[in-house]
Amino acid sequence: MNEMSLPRPNNLDSFWMPYSDNRYFKANPRLLARAEGMSYFTPEGREVLDGTAGLWCCNAGHGRREIVEAIQKQAAIMDFAPTFQLGHPIAFEAAARVAEMTPAGIDRVFFTNSGSESADTALKIALAYQKARGQSQRVRLIGRERGYHGVGFGGMSVGGIGGNRKQFGAMLPYVDHLPHTHDPARNAFTKGMPEHGAELANKLEDLVALHGDTIAAVMVEPVAGSTGVLVPPKGYLQRLRELCDKHGILLIYDEVITGFGRLGTDFGAERLGVAPDIMTMAKGLTNAAVPMGAVATTNEVYETVVEGSPAGIELFHGYTYSGHPLASAAAIATLALHREEDLPGRARAIEPYWEEAAHSLRSAPGVVDIRNFGLIAGIELAPREGKPGARAMDVFRRCFDEGVLIRVTGDIVALSPPLIVEKPHVDRMMGTLADAIHAIA
């Protein structure tokens, strides 16, 4: 028998795990084998309460029958159909359901397969828009320090997390960054939106003075999640919107985390009262049951690109799986659950209890800041000297072993439970986290 045909052992070796310490994990594996409701279960059957909605994405909880059945039904009807110069009804229906939820006027939907693809798609649409309206010199993209917009080269370039960039050399040209809004000296332990920092949006004026009329778009997260929960100061996004309008710059929101109820509204734009020109989404769109992302634009952006192009293809961009039938079915079922169970309303109702529970950790050893907004909380720990991230990773591992899943980024614990969370779940999460912080102090 050819060596290539021999069966290989089913072990941990073949899977190169993403964003993981592969060497540590494969010596000390922590595996999840099943999920239901608010919990995962290990192969041994031990319950692990989900404090992170998977990766910010399972907003309706796990194993929802309505979503599972929609995927099964669609797989039996049609497993795949291309959307290049062809269409299938379910993709159009999914787009219409998304457009019902986005802010008024932002109802043209381009499907992707992930948040990273959504970020790069949004940036390309912004460049295409500026060219179509006769502003071809606008090729510069502005992000923000500590911003996260996925791992494609576009989103990674506009993003501002150094660890995501340092291995890969040169990024995209013509990119600059606004300062981040984290100001612990003035805003530590704020509940909700900080009072101080709106003036940081004025730094866009400095970039305009430097780069002139070459800026195409500014991309920010309404609430920055993956960098450790940075909540925008009061008035910050309003000022950023004003400056973008003043200088002919598109404003892009990365709503991959903040979309679909996480902030107690359909999208962060609604909760924060400031609408963008383009918004990205993924994660909660399908409850993570099938990978899917999307970019929604204003009618003006769409019509400028489409009507301003010669006959034929207007945007030379797309993915084999854009609007995939199974993903579309999952999205339709997920958004129906979102409406029927009022997941944003549930999040908003429990938010005060969530806020108080998170801030109850203030006196725990090594806690230097706590930030929260919607059903998100960030608990920042003092790093150990010479070992950044080690303290939080020890907390992560201890919490998992005690039956609660949390997420850490650097020395920040980030919590974002499914929106079906109830008070006993909150108590268990925070209690286990408090015990872990004390145990490793």
Features:
441 residues; alpha/beta; Aspartate Aminotransferase, domain 1; Aspartate Aminotransferase, domain 2; 7-stranded mixed beta sheet; 15 helices; 15 strands; globular; aminotransferase
Structure report:
By secondary structure, the protein is of the alpha/beta class. 37% of the residues lie in helices and 15% in strands. The protein has 15 helices and 15 strands. The strands form three sheets. It has a seven-stranded mixed sheet, sandwiched between helices. Helix 4 (89-101) packs parallel to helix 12. The termini are far apart. The relative contact order is 0.16. The mean pLDDT is 96. This is Beta-alanine--pyruvate transaminase. InterPro entries: Aminotrans_3 (IPR005814), Aminotrans_3_PPA_site (IPR049704), PyrdxlP-dep_Trfase (IPR015424), PyrdxlP-dep_Trfase_major (IPR015421), PyrdxlP-dep_Trfase_small (IPR015422). Belongs to the class-III pyridoxal-phosphate-dependent aminotransferase family. Its EC number is 2.6.1.18.
- Oligomer kind: single chain
Q: By CATH's scheme, which homologous superfamily of the largest domain applies?
A: Type I PLP-dependent aspartate aminotransferase-like (Major domain)
Strand tally is 15
**Rg, Cα atoms, Å:** 22 Å
Q: Which strand-content bin applies to the residues?
A: 5-15%
Could you say how many structural domains there are in total? 2
Task: Report on the biggest sheet.
Answer: 7 strands, mixed
Strand order in space, largest sheet: 4-10-9-8-7-5-6
